[in-house]
Amino acid sequence: xGVKTKALKAAFPYTVPILAGFLFLxxxxxxxMSSKGFSxxxxxxxxxxxxxxxxxxxxxxxxxxxxxxxxxxIMAIMVNARHIFYGISMLEKFSGLGLKKLYLIFxxxxxxxxxxxxxxxxxxxxxxxxxxxxxxxxxxxxVSGATIGAVLGSFITFDxxxxxxxxxxLFVVIFIExxxxxxxxxxxxSGVILSxxxxxxxxxxxxxxxxxxFIVVFFVAIRKKGES
Length: 228
Fold this sequence. Notes:
This protein is an all-alpha fold. It has two domains: 3-163, no CATH class; 182-228. Helix content is 77%, strand content 0%. It contains twelve helices and no strands. It has helices at residues 3-35, 41-49, 53-64, 69-80, 82-89, 91-94, 100-106, 110-118, 127-153, 165-181, 186-202, 208-227. α7 (100-106) packs across α9 and α8 packs antiparallel against α9. The longest helix has 33 residues, at 3-35. It is globular, with a radius of gyration of 19 Å. The protein starts with a helix and ends with a helix.
């Protein structure tokens, strides 16, 4: 069995739970784009090239509003600020992976990060290709869902009010799965508490970046305390 085939077979089972979520979420996104009057091309290429579910939902309104690149840039940073910290924590894992690292950086979504960060890679499976296929499969699921939704949305019309909530629902499910799958809940509880505290202090439009900063500082403090 080839190195790539072996890594693909090892990675696929880890992505099966994401398959159902991404297909449903992607279809919802495709329907939403179609309901706003966009052609099929938009959700297909946006899901392929942006590959940031929450930002893609936000982009729907950005494309329909007045052209404001500065506001769009700031919004993109706010929505995806967590990926800065994802990237920092994955620097060691991505080292020495050659060109695969470029795609791993581009395709790092919440779900791929969660799997690649914590999955126990089977013995004899190449680490780089395992992480590559985890990322590629999740990317494929998202693009497929968006494409199906866009195609169906061009024939089927219904009230899409509140459809954006599926993104929040997906994050809640991921949080619950992580809670059940770990013995210690300190990281999860600290994240919730610090996020709520910054939400109260900074408000719903400005709490994301402060929350991420406080969470990172908290984790660094815990790590240093544990090493001392």
